[in-house]
TrEMBL record:
<dbReference type="InterPro" id="IPR011021">
    <property type="entry name" value="Arrestin-like_N"/>
</dbReference>
<dbReference type="GO" id="GO:0007399">
    <property type="term" value="P:nervous system development"/>
</dbReference>
<dbReference type="GO" id="GO:0005886">
    <property type="term" value="C:plasma membrane"/>
</dbReference>
<feature type="domain" description="Arrestin C-terminal-like">
    <location>
        <begin position="211"/>
        <end position="338"/>
    </location>
</feature>
<dbReference type="Pfam" id="PF02752">
    <property type="entry name" value="Arrestin_C"/>
</dbReference>
<dbReference type="Pfam" id="PF00339">
    <property type="entry name" value="Arrestin_N"/>
</dbReference>
<dbReference type="InterPro" id="IPR014752">
    <property type="entry name" value="Arrestin-like_C"/>
</dbReference>
<dbReference type="GO" id="GO:0005737">
    <property type="term" value="C:cytoplasm"/>
</dbReference>
<dbReference type="InterPro" id="IPR011022">
    <property type="entry name" value="Arrestin_C-like"/>
</dbReference>
<comment type="similarity">
    <text>Belongs to the arrestin family.</text>
</comment>
<dbReference type="InterPro" id="IPR014756">
    <property type="entry name" value="Ig_E-set"/>
</dbReference>
<protein>
    <submittedName>
        <fullName>Arrestin domain containing 2</fullName>
    </submittedName>
</protein>
<dbReference type="GO" id="GO:0015031">
    <property type="term" value="P:protein transport"/>
</dbReference>
<dbReference type="InterPro" id="IPR050357">
    <property type="entry name" value="Arrestin_domain-protein"/>
</dbReference>
């Protein structure tokens, strides 16, 4: 007698709940292999493709397959869907000169708890199933409130799974478990995530307890929100006022924060690095949109109470005689990429902010005035242009087209780009920086 239960399921958006309950077109089937036990029964271990992704409010539907080679008595077949965020780590503590102990830190947050009975007799007695394949469909909706994106870390995880238990008379309870992924959408097309990020920082370089000049870093990026695979243009200026060479670089870091019992544990890792050329003494280096590409990484986790995943763009320079000078610009890794209109909004804010005083990057000098009209137009051409129109000139053809056509011609023209605005505005309060200042 062979028993081989399987779980097949898929995640379906909440807008398709009705079709999900009536048409079982499931994806990402989990393949199982049987392992025969000493009692003549076989159990299955799951492997194969990963299940689909789900979000808050989605309906997870599927079926449990039970294969029998003979008549079998079953008490019940129950399903339990769970989702937890869990953290755990240990730290060594000293209790004296010759003794020590280990302190444990752990915590958990429940996000999903759904139970469903797939098979059970009404009177509490057993149900007799004949040999062959038996299918038990199931369907449940994820909570409408915000869930947390699935995550695996060194000191904690956020996991969701479906577990099925088969209860039989005088037999061990058999279980099968299948995990699924939850991805909570993070839309970077919001004002907060489209806002440019900028800052400046400086530090005094020292050699043998003697100050040898100041080193400063100024940097800016177009926006705060990005998605994996995008390229971040980095605008930066490195002003080396010291007597030593410095080397600038930029890199993206991921910070995993785990919280338990008021104690915090962090893990930092570098995602990608961008190195610049060395900057000599009393020199300045400018990055006009140096590109740093975001590799495939997980989205930011911001809504969990005990697990946080944050990203930062660090623009740094090694200062001789002191610690590294780093300017931190926060990033948010989203799941919904930038829309076309969001791209224009971002570029507009970027172009406007490039002329701000804090950036101080290559402010153009006062342009020369245009030449006189007489210098480029002859007297004969001037008299011809200034002459009044003759009666023979016919302007009736101008309005031969419908008047609405002229309105349409200008109605759908896009607004001028910001590059058409005077690129050399007057800045009376700004003076060019001296390299020795």
């Amino acid at each position: 007698m062979l028993i081989a239960p399987r779980i097949i399921y898929s995640s379906i958006p909440s807008s398709h709940v009705f079709s999900a309950l009536h048409s079982f077109s499931f994806h990402n089937e989990c393949f199982l292999e049987s392992q025969r036990s000493k009692h003549g029964l076989s159990w299955v271990q799951q492997h194969g493709t990963a299940p689909g992704r789900a979000s808050s409010g989605d309906v997870v539907s599927g079926k449990v397959l039970l294969e029998l080679t003979g008549e079998t008595k079953v008490h019940s077949l129950k399903l339990h869907a769970e989702g937890f965020a869990r953290v755990h780590w240990t730290e060594s503590r000293s209790a004296g000169a010759s003794s020590a102990y280990t302190q444990n830190y752990s915590d958990e947050v429940e996000y999903l708890n759904h139970r469903e009975v797939l098979l059970q007799a009404d009177n509490g007695d057993v149900t007799v199933l004949q040999s062959g394949k038996h299918e038990f469909p199931f369907s449940f909706q994820l909570p409408e409130e915000t869930l947390v994106t699935s995550f695996e870390g060194k000191y904690g995880s956020i996991r969701y799974w479906v577990k099925v238990k088969l209860h039989r008379p005088w037999a061990t309870v058999r279980k099968v478990k299948k995990e699924f992924t939850v991805i909570e959408p993070i839309d970077i097309n919001t004002p907060a995530l489209l806002a440019p990020q900028a800052g400046t920082k400086d530090k005094m370089a020292r050699v043998w307890y003697r100050n040898c000049g100041q080193v400063s870093v100024t940097a800016k990026i177009d926006r705060k929100g990005y998605t994996p695979g995008e390229v971040i243009p980095v605008f930066a200026e490195f002003d080396n006022g010291s007597s030593r060479c410095v080397e600038p670089k930029a890199f993206i870091t991921q910070t995993q924060t785990f919280i338990a019992r008021g104690t915090m544990k962090q893990k930092h890792s570098v995602v990608v690095t961008l190195r610049g050329d060395r900057v000599g003494p009393r020199c300045r280096e400018t990055w006009h949109g140096r590109a740093i590409k975001i590799p495939p990484v997980g989205p930011s986790v911001l809504q969990c109470r005990i697990i946080k995943v944050a990203y930062t763009l660090k623009v740094c320079v090694n200062v001789p005689g002191t610690s590294k000078l780093c300017l931190d610009l926060p990033l948010v890794m989203g799941t919904i990429p930038l829309h076309p209109f969001g791209s224009r909004t971002s570029s507009v804010s970027s172009q406007c902010s490039l002329n701000l005083e804090w950036l101080r990057m290559g402010i153009p000098e006062q342009p020369e005035p245009p030449p006189d009209y007489s210098a480029i137009v002859s007297d004969e051409e001037a008299e011809q242009n200034m002459a009044p129109p003759s009666a023979e000139d016919d302007f009736t053809g101008v309005l031969q087209r419908p008047y609405f056509a002229y309105i349409q011609e200008f109605r759908f023209r896009p607004p001028p780009v910001y590059s058409e605005v005077d690129p050399n505005p007057q800045f009376s309060s700004i003076r060019r920086r001296c390299m020795t200042c």
